[in-house]
């Protein structure tokens, strides 16, 4: 699992480097996730270890979200000042994420049903 965590951190680092070198107005972790997505789609070696690490992180996601909730409560006055902008960005961000996850799932399911899933994974 340590290998998978290191791979995840490596892609976040690559995102930081790419943002630093190009000055793109994107969050570096998002760029790192996009790079990780390409690596997963291309079947880069060692990507099977990422699944185990990601699963462990997802199992404990409540521990990762808890500090965020505390920070929101402590900075509530700032959120009230920018409530409209935050609401719009949350709604549109959620919609964009849902569309992207749906498209990714369709691509992965199509790829899996064409022989990438180990033989008998034929999904309707």
UniProtKB/TrEMBL annotation:
Keywords: Cell membrane, Membrane, Transmembrane, Transmembrane helix. Its main location: membrane. GO terms for cellular component: plasma membrane. The keyword Cell membrane applies. Pfam families: LrgA. It is found in: Cell membrane. It comes from the Bacteria. The chain crosses the membrane at residues 25-44, 56-77, 83-105. It is a multi-pass membrane protein. This is LrgA family. It comes from Alcanivorax dieselolei (strain DSM 16502 / CGMCC 1.3690 / MCCC 1A00001 / B-5) (Alloalcanivorax dieselolei).
